[in-house]
Amino acid sequence: MPAPQPETPPGVTPLATTAPAADPAPSAPLGAHHHDLVQAAGMPVGAGEIKVTYDPRLTNEDLAPLRKQTWSSYNIFAFWMSDVHSVGGYVTAGSLFALGIASWQVLVALVVGILIVQVFCNLVAKPSQRTSVPYPVINRAVFGVLGANIPAIIRGLIAVAWYGVQTFLAAESLNIVFLKFVPGAEALLAPTFVGLNALGWISYAILWCAQAALFWNGMETIRRFIDWAGPAVYVVMIVLAIYLASEAGWSNISLNLSTGEPMSFAASIPVMFSAIALVVSYFSGPMLNFGDFSRYGRSFAAVKKGNLLGLPINFLFFSLLTVVCASATVPVFGELLTDPIRTVEAIDTPFAILLGGLTFVTATVGINIVANFISPAFDFSNVSPQRISWRTGGMIAAVGSVLLTPWNWYSNDDAIHYTLGVLGALIGPLFGILIAGYYVIGKQRVHVDDMFTMSPTGRYFYTRGYNRNAVAAVVGSGLVAVGTAVLPKLVADLGLVDVTWIASYSWFIGCGLGFAVFTWLERRNPQMPVLDADDPHVSDGTRDERAVTSGTVPA
């Protein structure tokens, strides 16, 4: 296990506490000696390049601009495979076919929803890919060097909660394997501790440790894992679909899983829009902090190609496999099963249970690592870079996920609605503000070095480190977004008017309001600087891209 990185490696010049005012002269990287020390301290070669002008209160190897960006289109494609190929992705895709609308309408909703996700992911990917910094750092240009902790903490808390849930779901898959192959495992189902039986604790602990070990080995190990995990799940899904279809008879496979009375075309339109919103909401978390991964892309073109392969193409093919499997469960088992864990259980053959159980464990670990482990690692590290490294931030999330005891509240609809509903509703405003700040107000220009200075003359110091326009925008639009997510259910539970359909669009409402309010405030009282595109320290996203070779992205 690599040793933690010391705060200041021996022999390296300590970081300056403040950066020079206005336009500092270019500062040389810390050099080959520092590079060797970083390797000795257990950091990967592709870690960030720290300049002597960078303030240690804002800087560590994980947050600084990368020395080199190496991820190809396939790596981004594999990232999305890991994000899509999970129990949650399976259930979400299958659930759209049970909304009562026609199959062609479900297909349209899937296509439109995933194309919206692709467009938004490309938007949020560009600033981080061009500057080679993670999501919380690029927010410093919009929220201020200290204000960026607001979106970082919100996103980090959401990830912690869902990290626990996904680990619990993976443990449920592992339980099936134990019950089938370990004699006496059933005896462990009765005793409970803090709401979870002994077998559940064993499975949860195994997966918790496995994910922590994978994460601790660094981003390159994670990249290799997701490069393998996504295709592996595909192989098993295809085998499962072929087996179930052959057992059911190909003539009995139907793409129409609708239940209940057929809807009229007029009545089906709102349901289609809800299905589109469901697809976008499902991906809203990883979509917000996609910059944590796009920063590694060797070019923005490679990231966009990976998004194309991983989102519309991959998602639709996976959805088709899901429908084939779910449709076949009706003639084979006599009921519609949209949960892959229950489907594997119903097959009830040792090989199928072993292969299916381990596959869905792998799939859930994949999405957990990319969506719920890496994000809080960067987010919490951003709060106090010298005290919290990337690894420490991730372990804070892992420990916090256990303390939340997700198995106790995951089955409680009200708990999910009123806790994660509030946090999740804030994802839209945070997204809208970042996009408005980078594209509309900032004109795609970012002074990379100034995101790492606490000097009052720094471009992103604003008012004591906070951009008051961004703070006001997230509060104003956030309150509306939370209201649309939480209040409709409360009103319906009180027996008043039923407007719960509004909650499906809380992300869009929050995103639109965040974008509009922040743009209006900046037009009225500008805070973000107008940067010169010819400044060699400025990353200009409108110009031809070049990969990072050292330190700041070249203009």
TrEMBL record:
A Gene Ontology cellular-component term: plasma membrane
Subcellular location, record wording: Membrane
The keyword Zinc-finger belongs to this UniProt entry's keyword annotation: no
Pro residues: bias regions: 1-12
A Pfam family hit: Transp_cyt_pur
Protein topology in the membrane: Multi-pass membrane protein
Primary location class: membrane
Keyword Cytoplasm: no
Gene3D superfamilies, sorted: Hydantoin permease (1.10.4160.10)
Low complexity: compositionally biased ranges: 13-28
Compositionally skewed regions (Basic and acidic residues) per UniProt: 534-547
Location of the region described as Disordered in the Swiss-Prot/TrEMBL record: 1-28, 531-555
Listed PANTHER family: NCS1 FAMILY NUCLEOBASE:CATION SYMPORTER-1, NCS1 FAMILY PURINE/PYRIMIDINE TRANSPORTER
UniProt name for this protein: NCS1 family nucleobase:cation symporter-1
Organism of derivation: Cellulomonas shaoxiangyii
